[in-house]
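Support reply, case 0932

Customer input (verbatim):
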Amino acid sequence: MQSHGKTKRTYRTLFDVIDAWECFGECEGVISFGKEDVQNVSFAQLHRRVLQVARGLQDRYEDRSHAMLLANARPEWILVCAAALRGGLVPVPVDVQSSDENLRHIVQDSQPQVIFTTSDQRDRLDELELTGACDMVLLDVDAVQLDRAQQRL
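Our regenerated output:
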């Protein structure tokens, strides 16, 4: 298919979309406006990080394991959601504004093997006694450590 001299791509699955990110190279893929700075992540960087995290998830969890995402909108949310999909996990996105009752039901029903969340939401999960036997990844802490490690490479 042609459109204005460029080939139009057809994406049949989310895998196709994620894999296509590499083709967009250094174009800005995610722009995050913080209180004091602006963070730009290119499509190529995002794609590399997704594949790295996906490999780690594949090594640690069985196919179709549930990965809960409980965090406000942030660049890391996009990364871990795409990595979970690419790694064969089932993302379980949960709105941080969910009531305690709904959150309890979702955790008990989905039985996530890993929860990607933030420090404040982890405290909420702890108060509700929902952190049981699953792994916990703190996006607001672990992402900073991951970025530092990648900068040293």
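We compared this against your earlier run and they match. Two observations from our side: The first strand starts at residue 2 and ends at 3. Strands lie at 2-3, 6-7, 28-33, 38-42, 66-70, 90-93, 114-117, 135-138. Please reopen the case if you see a mismatch on your end.
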